[in-house]
Design brief:
mainly beta, 5% helix, 127 residues, 11 strands, 7-stranded mixed beta sheet
Length: 127
C-alpha cells in the first residue's frame, strides 16, 4: 500500500518538546516533496514545514523558525518534525503530506497540494 502513518503527538507543557514521525510505505522519498501541516479547531489547515526528498532542502513558516526541525531518514523511509520550545498556539492536529515530482518550495508556497496524507496526530500544548 502507498500510505503515510503519523505518530508522536501528545500533551506537553509550554516550553517542552515533541518529535512527530511520518512513516511511509509503498514508496521512497527520492522524487517526493514532504510536508508537515497543522489544523487548529476552527482554523484552516496551514503549512508548517516542507523538505525535498531529493536533496534535503527545507522550508519553515515564520512562526516555527528556530523551534522546529524537519528531517528525513531514508533508511526507515520516515519523515520527522522535531518541535522544541512549544507554545500553546502550536496546539493543533498535525498531518504529514507528500507529493511526487514537485519541488518542496512549490509545496511550501501552496501552489500544489499533497496527493498523500497521513491520518493526523494531536499535539496539545498547555500553558
Amino acid at each position: 500500500e502507498v500510505q503515510l502513518v503519523e505518530s508522536g503527538g501528545g500533551l506537553v507543557q509550554a516550553g517542552g518538546s515533541l518529535r512527530l514521525s511520518c512513516a511511509a510505505s509503498g514508496f521512497t522519498f527520492d522524487h517526493y516533496a514532504i510536508g508537515w501541516f497543522r489544523q487548529a479547531p476552527g482554523k484552516e489547515r496551514e503549512v508548517v514545514s516542507c523538505i525535498a526528498g531529493s536533496d534535503g532542502n527545507t522550508y519553515y513558516v515564520d512562526s516555527v523558525k528556530g523551534r522546529f526541525t524537519i528531517s528525513l531518514d531514508n533508511e526507515k523511509i520516515t519523515a520527522y518534525l522535531q518541535m522544541n520550545s512549544l507554545k500553546p498556539e502550536d496546539t493543533a492536529v498535525y498531518y504529514c503530506g507528500a507529493v511526487a515530482y514537485v519541488y518542496a518550495s512549490v509545496l511550501f508556497r501552496g501552489w500544489q497540494s499533497p496527493e498523500l496524507w497521513g491520518q493526523g496526530t494531536q499535539v496539545t500544548v498547555s500553558s
